[in-house]
Write a structure and sequence with these properties.
Blueprint: E1 2-6, H1 12-21, E2 25-29, E3 40-43, H2 48-57, H3 60-69, E4 74-77, H4 79-84, E5 85-88, E6 99-104, E7 115-119, E8 128-132, E9 137-141, E10 146-151, E11 154-160, E12 163-166, H5 177-192
Parallel strand pairs: 1-2, 1-3, 3-4, 4-12, 5-6
Antiparallel strand pairs: 6-9, 7-8, 10-11, 11-12
């Protein structure tokens, strides 16, 4: 099973290491045609406006929408969550507009207000280690969205069908269970399509 990591900006190598701990193969995705080689895609953290501009420049917006329309799973972490959202609370336009959520950017404050904690994630037995860095929050969810984690009464992990998002950076810890959760989503789609 091959899972790609959009390699335009962000913690690409760390995501690939976490993917490979699940037993899947991780591939950096730098060109649109590489999406045909993978069964799932991770959109990592970074700066959402910059990644969005690069996605437009290199033709990834329509390519990723098409990837999703085929039922292939996508996992967005931090900036990746913002890129997948249909709505951004500030009123600025969305990017991929795939997931029925509204997000607030930098909701936890600036870089110096970054922190780590343990969180309960629905579908994972024990608490997951989470690293929040200038993290966004999900402020509203549509009826198809399942909330997986709430922190201080705020939504920080959610799923809608083949889409998974987290406000935090699971790739910056040794805990790869959220990547395993995603790999299981990818595997389930692969089995269903056989």
């Amino acid at each position: 099973m091959k899972i790609g990591v959009l390699a335009l900006q962000g913690a690409v190598t760390e995501h690939i290491v976490s993917i490979e701990k699940t037993g899947a193969v991780g591939l950096p995705i730098k060109r649109v045609e590489q999406l045909e080689e993978v069964e799932g895609l991770i959109i990592p953290g970074g700066e959402s406006t910059t990644i969005g501009k690069l996605m437009r420049k290199y033709g990834f917006i329509e390519a990723i929408r098409d990837f999703s329309s085929q039922g292939k799973p996508i996992f967005g972490t931090c900036a990746g969550l913002i890129l997948l959202a249909k709505r951004i609370a500030s009123g600025e336009p969305g990017h991929l507009e795939l997931m029925d959520i509204t997000v607030a950017r930098n909701a936890f404050g600036r870089q110096r207000e970054s922190f780590e904690c343990d969180l309960e994630v629905k579908g994972i037995n024990e608490a997951v280690r989470a690293v929040f860095i200038r993290a966004p929050l999900i402020t509203e969810v549509g009826p198809e969205v399942e909330v997986l984690t709430v922190y201080n009464n705020e939504i920080v992990t959610a799923r809608q069908g083949n889409l998974l998002v987290s406000s935090f950076h699971p790739e910056l810890t040794d805990d790869y269970r959220l990547h395993q959760y995603f790999a299981d989503m990818v595997q389930a789609v692969g089995i269903a399509n056989k």
